Amino acid sequence: MASLSRDLIEAGLGWQYRAERIRALMNDSDTATLVARDHRVIGFAIMSFHDEHAHLVLMAVRPSEQRRGIARRMVVWLVESAITAGIASIHLELRARNEAAYAFYRALGFAETLRLPGYYLGRETAIRMLRLLRAPNVVVPAWRPPTRDAR
Length: 151
Fold this sequence. Notes:
Blueprint: H1 2-9, H2 19-27, E1 31-37, E2 41-49, E3 53-61, H3 70-84, E4 89-95, H4 99-107, E5 111-120, E6 124-132
Parallel strand pairs: 3-4
Antiparallel strand pairs: 1-2, 2-3, 4-6, 5-6
């Protein structure tokens, strides 16, 4: 996963998400890590959960495996998990020049909220995106299993 991050996400920016940092994220109980694989890792997604929001930290799929629905299935699973956890919104950042990723997230219901010049090592602009899942600060009732009607 660290090498996929280096080659597909962080290319040209240095290597921040090395194996030890990925391992620390995976060991964090407030973080979900998904791995798509055949005989090797073909894609992954890491999302951290907070009180009201979640942050999609990293997501990548090998170029040879792209356009097969892998990333979409991972995002759908993460969104459904966030809804179940009572999360109000999911946030992410991507490079402004990554038009394919921008279109991908827009198609999955994310909206651009802000552009951050120099976000990536002072060199590249980031686009921050958001998907609202529910109104913030609204208490969601705890899930309870259905009861059997004794009629």
